[in-house]
Amino acid sequence: MITGEYPPQTGGVSDYSRLVANGLAAEGDTVHIYAPAIRANEYLDDGIEIHRLPGHFEPQSLGRLGRELHSLTGDVADEIVLVQYVPHALGFKAMNVPFCAWLYALSRSRRRIMVMFHEATVPWRSGQPIKLQVLALVTALMAMLMARAASVIFVAIPAWKERLARFAGNTQMKWMPVPSNVPVAEDADAIAAKRRELNAKTIIGHFGTNENSISRLLNLVIPQLLEALPDAKLLLIGRDSAALKEIISQAKPAIVNRIYATGGLPEKSASVALSSCDLMLQPYPDGVSTRRGSVMAALAHQRAVVTTAGAFTEPLWSESPAVALAGVGDDRAICAEVKRLTMDEFERRTIALSGKRLYDKRFALRHTIEALRASAR
Prior knowledge:
By secondary structure, this protein is α/β, with parallel strands linked by helices. The chain folds into 2 domains: 2-176, 3-Layer(aba) Sandwich (Rossmann fold); 188-363, Glycogen Phosphorylase B (Rossmann fold). It has helices at 12-26, 59-71, 97-106, 130-149, 158-168, 188-198, 212-228, 241-251, 267-275, 293-300, 316-319, 331-343, 345-363, 365-376, and strands at 2-3, 31-36, 48-53, 80-85, 112-117, 152-155, 172-175, 202-207, 232-237, 259-261, 279-282, 304-309, 324-327. It has a 6-stranded parallel beta sheet with strand order 10-9-8-11-12-13, with helices on both faces. Helix 1 (12-26) crosses helix 14 and helix 7 (212-228) packs across helix 12. The longest helix is centred in the middle third of the chain and has 20 residues, at 130-149. The model has no long low-confidence stretch (mean pLDDT 94).
């Protein structure tokens, strides 16, 4: 597996890569990870060998990567190279064409290459700044090279299929939603202790790294919610949560004592925090989609979710009662859904159970591992 980040590096792709690596190793596969160097102790997992490369996939690093791949014993026809593709994780300011050209050259050998597109290209739009136009053109070139190198293409959301169709030719493309990266911790005592600590009739949670666009959405919605729900408190879960609390508190200092931020947490503590919430508020500027590990974590923990429908939202979200949906940018509708579920415990539990069933049926890690191993046969 080649990935731009791997634990203890932080990030969604980092967590996903380790999750998949452990899932493959549990099935008896020999797993080698190739990722950029770090200054921290490695996570030591059975069946996984981690190879840290100098730099960030520049030519020197690629030379070493090639040599290490060729040094592996066995028939190269039995090797699968799985690439976790995110342009921004490959260095070169998301324009690492040399890496994509190197992978295309590698595909001329007998090795089978699978590419998981977590992201595809930066969209080109008329009138956008020159910098973004250049980035759009370069990421399109990169996607073309990656798609033509792959024997199988996986995409985190169906929308990437549309962007890659012109490059993929006859290469098979498969939709492979991301699973939750937070294992469910069955610890009723710890969950009860967390709820006592927060001491609220209703705990509204939010989980995620809080990219700027999500922070802006929350900054608009949360003050309205807490003013309308005087018995509720907000629990922000994730490594950027303290910064988000500060942003919201500056806008509405009166609600600062009703917002709690966990900061970065170990897996079990994150699970306990998720399970202590009555419902989760998970708005996304492009809509909820199957590439959002944060909403998958909420579903896996059987939490009712209020989220947004937007450009990347797949039909399954509106076809299933697994989440409560409001339109992107419709702050009033988002608040109304949260208030509705706060007051209706039966409906809240119904949505939570539907979400857990959908997660188990469509998104759980076993589906990812089955898809990868089936494509490798």
